[in-house]
Recover the amino acids of this structure.
């Protein structure tokens, strides 16, 4: 398994996609980007603040990173589609990370609105990367309407609970013919490694890095976790067994305990 | 005349275009990273210079921010 990720015919040198949310400032973001060695980053669209200092686009442009606009905060297909239209104008890209949220406490996707928005945007020529649940049927529906990848959550956004249902994620991977990106829930490097070991093509990570005590160190750790996962996936893990299988042979064992009545 | 920019009233000259409004907000000259919706409809960047605002128009001027 190589370190490269290919989505919609475009090749990225890293399987790690970085969400840019949550960094305290642009300097810290730039340092984390360098440590993560990512080539694709999400951004959001919000009202222009004339007093805002610096531009996140300048940071990403400087690092040569492709922008993936999201539709975060949208609760209906209509709003998500409108946001994608605005993002296409702002960033001159037809790529979109499609988020249609159904509930403000769990931030879980609204499956019905998500599929509707995905279908509309695909028909309009967008390259759609939908944030979805870990439901294999929903993932297949999104693939069927023409999404360029599917991005199942490991656990809720920002929860850091890792991959709560690895069996579902592996079923999605087995049945998908588009790239699978584990999105949301990553808490630390081992979660990212597990995602890739399960067969995911990539990992999207924001809070785990931006809200870590040391975001730059965590960016490095998660990059290495992704690489370790890819190596391990290619190496082929041993099957899980319920009982032990000795690693040391029994053959050639000396006899060291002699019954007392046989001692000369 | 008064228009509504990002939810707040703003006084602009009659005949002000979208391009002029965006520039007055300090957005980059080439408009990179900026999108405009007028009455809920996207205004393509190419149409900014020719699109004049009307009294009471509701304009959303958006730009890139950090986000997952």
């Amino acid at each position: 398994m190589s370190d490269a990720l290919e989505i919609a015919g475009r090749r990225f040198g890293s399987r790690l996609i970085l969400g840019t949310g949550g960094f305290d400032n642009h300097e810290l973001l730039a340092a984390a980007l360098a440590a993560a060695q990512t080539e694709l980053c999400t951004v959001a669209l919000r009202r222009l603040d004339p007093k805002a200092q610096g531009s996140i686009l300048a940071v990403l442009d400087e690092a040569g990173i492709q922008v993936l606009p999201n539709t975060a905060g949208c609760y209906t297909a209509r709003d998500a589609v409108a946001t994608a239209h605005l993002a296409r104008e702002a960033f001159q890209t037809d790529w979109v990370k499609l988020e249609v949220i159904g509930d403000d406490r769990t931030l879980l996707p609204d499956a019905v609105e998500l599929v509707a928005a995905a279908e509309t945007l695909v028909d309009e020529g967008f390259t759609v990367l939908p944030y979805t649940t870990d439901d294999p049927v929903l993932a297949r529906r999104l693939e069927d309407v023409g999404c360029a990848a599917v991005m199942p959550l490991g656990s809720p956004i920002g929860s850091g609970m890792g991959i709560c249902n690895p069996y579902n994620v592996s079923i999605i991977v087995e049945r998908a013919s588009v790239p699978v990106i584990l999105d949301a829930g990553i808490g630390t490097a081992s979660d990212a490694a597990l995602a890739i070991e399960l067969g995911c093509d990539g990992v999207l990570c924001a809070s785990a890095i931006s809200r870590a005590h040391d975001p730059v160190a965590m960016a490095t750790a998660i990059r290495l976790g992704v690489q370790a996962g890819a190596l391990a996936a290619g190496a082929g893990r041993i099957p899980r067994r319920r009982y032990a299988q000795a690693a040391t042979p029994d053959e050639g064992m000396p006899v060291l305990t002699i019954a007392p009545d046989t001692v000369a | 005349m008064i228009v509504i920019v990002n939810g707040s009233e703003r006084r602009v000259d009659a005949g002000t275009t979208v391009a002029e409004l965006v520039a007055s907000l300090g957005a980059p000259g080439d408009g990179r990273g900026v999108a405009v919706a007028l009455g809920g409809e996207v205004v393509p960047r190419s149409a900014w210079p020719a699109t004049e605002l009307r009294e009471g128009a509701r304009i959303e001027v958006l730009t890139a921010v950090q986000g997952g």
